[in-house]
Amino acid sequence: xxxxxxxxxxxxxxxxxxxxxxxxxxxxxxxxxxxxxxxxxxxxxxxxxxxxxxxxxxxxxxxxxxxxxxxxxxxxxxxxxxxxxxxxxxxxxxxxxxxxxxxxxxxxxxxxxxxxxxxxxxxxxxxxxxxxxxxxxxxxxxxxxxxxxxxxxxxxxxxxxxxxxxxxxxxxxxxxxxxxxxxxxxxxxxxxxxxxxxxxxxxxxxxxxxxxxxxxxxxxxxxxxxxxxxxxxxxxxxxxxxxxxxxxxxxxxxxxxxxxxxxxxxxxxxxxxxxxxxxxxxxxxxxxxxxxxxxxxxxxxxxxxxxxxxxxxxxxxxxxxxxxxxxxxxxxxxxxxxxxxxxxxxxxxxxxxxxxxxxxxxxxxxxxxxxxxxxxxxxxxxxxxxxxxxxxxxxxxxxxxxxxxxxxxxxxxxxxxxxxxxxxxxxxxxxxxxxxxxxxxxxxxxxxxxxxxxxxxxxxxxxxxxxxxxxxxxxxxxxxxxxxxxxxxxxxxxxxxxxxx
Length: 501
Known about the structure:
The chain is an alpha+beta fold and 501 residues long.
C-alpha cells in the first residue's frame, strides 16, 4: 500500500489532537470542580443562618463606615488587627451592601478560593492524589468553614497565607526572581491581614535563607517582607493590643487543649464532648503509621509542611511562656493549612487504600460536625437577631441593659438603639437585662425603684430579664451601668422613645 499525505491526515470526523488534550486536561480537574462546589455549598447555603456575634458586629457597626477615611481611622482606634481585610471589605460592601449575607460573602469566597490553592499545593508537593486529599480536607474542615462564614479577617488570612506557602514551596524548588517575588508579595499581604502571619513567614524565610544566605534574590524578598513589618509598627503601637485582655483571662492550659479541638471540631465544637473529639482524632493519630510508605520526596515534603505548621503553632506558645501573651487558638487558623498538607501526603502515599479510607473518614467526620453546627443552635453563634426581635415587643419607652457582650450585635439589628452614658438620665417603663448565663442571683432584683420582674425568657442560650413599671420612671445611666449581673462591665442601650434628661 502506498502511504500518502492524505493517509497520514487526521480523520475528517472525530476528535482532533488538541480537543483530546483539552478533554484530558478537563478530566484531570473534575475532582477539584466537585470539591469547590462542595466548599461553596457548605459555606453559602447557611451563610446568613446564624446571627452576627460580637466580633462580627465590631466590624459591621464600629469599623466599616461609608467613608473610607472613617473606616481607616476605626482600624486604628477600634481594632487590633492590620488594615487589609477592612479595606477589601469596605469596597466589597460598597457594591453588595451591609446585610449579613453580603458581609460574610467576602470570607466565603476566600474560603472557596483556598480549596483551589490547596489543590495546587498538593500538586506541588506530590501528585494529583495528594491534591485531592488536601483540597477535600480544606473544603470540609469545620474550622475553615466557620471562618468562611464570619465577618472577620481570618479566612482572607488563610487564603493569602496559603498562596504564600505555595510560592514558598516553588521558591524552595526553584529560587527564581519570579517565585521569590510572588512569595514576598503574598507574605506581605498576609501580614497586612493578620499579625500572626509573622510566624509562618519566619519559618519560611529561615528555610529559604538556609544555604542561600548570600543569594541577593532571597535577601531582597525577605527584606521586602521585613519592610512591611516595620511599616506596621506605628499601627501596632497605636492599637496597643486593644481588645485582647480576654486572652490572658483564658487559662493557658485550656488554650493548649483547644488547639486540637479547633482543628478537629471547629470554633464551637467543644460541647460535642471528648468522645466525639477522640473519634475525630483517631484517623489523624493513625496517619504517622503510614510514614514508611512515603518515598524520599514525599517524606521531605511532609517534614517540611509539618515543620512550618508546627513552628507557627509553637512559637506563639513559647512567647506566651516568656510573658508575651497574645496566643489564642483562632489566631493559628492559617497554620492548619501546612499541617493539613503534611497529613494529605501521609494519607495519599499509603498502600492498599488504607490512606484513602482514613482521608474519607476525616472528611466524613468534618461534614458531620458541620451538619451538627447547622442543626444545633447551642453550637452556633449567639442568636442576637432573635433577641432583637423579642425586644421589639413591649412598651415603647424602654432601655436595654446588656450584661455581657451583645450591645454591638443588638445595635446592628436595631440601629435605633444608642449608647447610654453614666451622666444621662432616662424616663422609661421597661428595663431589659440581656446576657449569657450564668447570671448572678442579684440579676433578678429590680434595677430601680418602681420596677418588678415581669418576664424571663431564653433565646437559644441568651437570657432576657424584663423589668417593668406602671409608668415611666427616671433612671440614671450610672445606676444601670453599675449593675454587675455578671463578672464583666455592663453596657446600656436606650431606645429612641426613652425620654432623656
